[in-house]
Specification:
- This protein is of the alpha/beta class and 235 residues long.
- It has a domain of 149 residues: Transposase Inhibitor Protein From Tn5, Chain A, domain 1 (Alpha-Beta Complex).
- Strands 1, 2, 3, 4, 5 and 6 form a six-stranded mixed sheet that branches.
- A hairpin with a 2-residue loop joins β3 and β4.
- It is flat.
Amino acid sequence: MESIVKHAQGLVYSLLCLMPSVYQTASLNAILGLFLEAQRHPYPEHTQIKSASALSRFLNHYNWSTRAVIRSTRQAILGQIAKHRPSKQVPLKILIDLTTLEKSGKFLHLSNPTQNEPDPWVRILNGKRGLHLVVLYLVYGEWRVPWSFRVWRGKGYPSPSDLACKLLGTVPKQLTQGKTVIVLADTEFSTVKFFNTVRAKTWRIVVGVRNNRKLQDGRTVKQLYRHGKRAPIQG
C-alpha cells in the first residue's frame, strides 16, 4: 500500500506541474483535496483553501490541455493497477452513472447558442438545469477510478443510454481479458440497446428496472418477481 500512495503522490505532483500559473496550481490542489478527503462533500463551496468562484473559473476553458491531463492520469492508473493487481477472483466492476452539474445564470458559452455551438450544453433533465454527464467508473479491488465521460447534449442527440454504450468501448482490454466483468447502472440505462451491448461483450449486467416494465409475453417485472421466472424485456 505504501508503494501505491507513493506513486499516487507522484501523479498528483506531475499534474500540478502541468498548470501554467501559481493560481491554477492552487485551484487544482484544492479540487484534488476535496476528492481525496472522501468526506462526500466534493463541492467548491466546501473547500477552505480557494473560493467557489475561483474553482469555477479554473474549470473554464484554458490553454492547458485537458486531454493531456486525462491521458497522463490514465497511463499512471493502468501502470499502478498492473503492479498491484487484485487476485484473479476479484471481478472488475463498471459503474455507469448520470451526474448533473447544476448551473444557474446565463453561461454565455454553455447555455447560449453560438455559431460554433448552435445547441447549448446546459439543458434541463429530470427537473435539473445544468451540464449532464454520463460517467463511467472502474471498480477493481480497492481501486475506484472515474475513467471516462460524455456530455448529454439534449433532444436530437444521443441519449444517456446511447452515450453509455459508447463509454463501454473505452474500457481498457488489459483489465477485462480473462476477468469477470460486472456492469452496474441505474434505471436510466435500462434499455434493450444497453442490455445487448453488454451481452455482446459477454459481461454480466445489474441494472435497475421499473416494476411496471412490460415483458415480451405481456407480463410486468413485478409479476415476474412473484412467479420467479425469467423472460425478455421489451424495448
